[in-house]
Design brief:
Hypothetical protein af1432, globular, single chain, binds magnesium ion, 18 helices, 399 residues, mainly alpha
């Protein structure tokens, strides 16, 4: 791998929370990726919703296929920019591990449950939950909880964090992954950004979901090709496709248009980021962290991407048919939370064994409401539906 000076070099990694000898044939970031792929939370992604509920069809994206698409996009951009592909891949594959069942609807419901239970609760944040999964909740190794990943992978996973949770993490891990979310009086210049690999995984996430949500939207019949003409980026590449293939229509026209849109965005990121890096010329990763974000679209592509996002929000994510299923999904999450809080014995004993008074996002032991939230967050859409039926006696979603 040909790495630029500002890329993350595994030989210069800030290391793991618990030191381990290096592996004989793999770099530390390759090893992180392998640990993520072998984790239980990773396998569950196959039955977790991205936008469409899992029972609605087998061809829609799930969190697993989404994560694979993010990793693939991220890797190909990383290689051209001489960034660390293995690290981008590890972050991309782990970035959604903390998502609840039923997509954002499930997360909002779980957050509300925690806040209703205790107004002082830190609530539920999916980025922080992804970190909690790899730091505390996975049970695979004899000597520690979690996967003991490198700082750089963990830094990338924690894309956002509330100040309050950041202070908790900073207290346990000073100068660690939450540092950039904590105010730093007297520490100028502030540590503002994660590595370029983390910034790239983040942008690849957006590129991936914008593209595949259009595809899934049309596949589901909730969006039409005609409607997509309102999206400047789509209409431009649809025209370009038709100029080359005048008789193309239906799915192949959609796929070819999306393919060209994806390529245009990838090349745009490579060009715009290349220019930003040339101008900023960060000497190393720490200089990257102190700089404003460097992985970016050009101004023009940023505008087009925003208008695509707005279109999807208005026409797909808020489509009455989607809203209807999300309301049912939120009811499932609320009912499960209430049921386990009222009678924890409805959960497997291993979860009850984690009850204690800890308030740290990075400890497996936690207050009952956090343990219940962890249990629900770990569920697949299918399992949550089945549990709901077992506890409430009726099915909310068709089998
Ligand atoms: Mg994602």
């Amino acid at each position: 791998m040909n790495l630029a000076a500002y890329a993350c070099d595994p030989a210069l990694s800030r290391g793991r929370r618990i030191p381990e000898p290096v592996a004989p044939t793999r770099s530390d970031f390759q090893r992180d990726r392998d640990r993520i792929v072998h984790s239980t939370a990773f396998r569950r992604l196959v039955y977790k919703t991205q936008v469409f509920l899992n029972h609605e069809g087998d061809l829609f994206r799930t969190r697993l296929t989404h994560s694979l698409e993010v990793a693939q996009l991220g890797r190909s951009i990383a290689r051209t920019l001489q960034l660390n592909e293995d690290l981008v891949e590890a972050i991309a594959l782990a970035h959604d591990l903390g998502h609840t069942p039923f997509g954002h609807a499930g997360q909002d419901a779980l957050n509300a449950c925690l806040k209703n239970h205790n107004p002082h609760s830190a609530g539920f944040e999916h980025n922080l939950q992804s970190l909690r999964v790899v730091d505390a909740l996975e049970e695979r190794y004899p000597d520690y909880d979690g996967l003991n990943l490198t700082f750089e992978t963990r830094e990338g996973i924690l894309k956002h964090c509330s100040k309050r949770n950041a202070r908790h993490i900073e207290a346990r891990e000073p100068g660690g992954v939450a540092r950039r979310f904590v105010e730093q009086p007297g520490h100028e210049p502030a540590w503002r950004q994660p590595s370029l690999e983390a910034q790239l995984a983040n942008l690849a996430d957006e590129i991936a979901y914008n593209a595949h949500d259009m595809d899934d939207g049309v596949r589901s019949g909730l969006l039409s090709l005609e409607q997509l003409e309102d999206v400047p980026l789509f209409s431009r590449y649809r025209r370009e496709t038709l100029a080359v293939h005048p008789r193309l229509q239906g799915r192949r026209l959609l796929f070819e248009t999306i393919r060209r849109m994806l390529s245009a965005q990838v090349y745009d990121v490579i060009d715009a980021t290349g220019r930003a890096l040339q101008q900023a010329a960060p000497a190393d990763v720490q200089a990257v962290r102190q700089h404003a974000g460097l992985v970016c679209f050009s101004d023009q592509m940023a505008l087009q991407s925003t208008s695509l996002k707005r279109f999807l929000l208005q026409n797909l994510y808020r489509h009455p048919q989607v809203t209807q299923t999300t309301q049912a999904a939120q009811q499932v999450v609320r009912d499960l939370f209430e049921a386990y809080m009222a009678d924890p014995a409805q959960m497997p004993q291993a979860h009850i064994d984690r009850f204690d008074s800890s308030d740290s996002p990075q400890a497996a032991g936690a207050k009952p409401e956090r343990v219940v939230a962890d249990y629900i967050a770990g569920m697949t859409d299918r399992f949550a539906g089945k549990e709901h039926e077992r506890l409430k006696g009726h099915a909310v979603f068709p089998a």
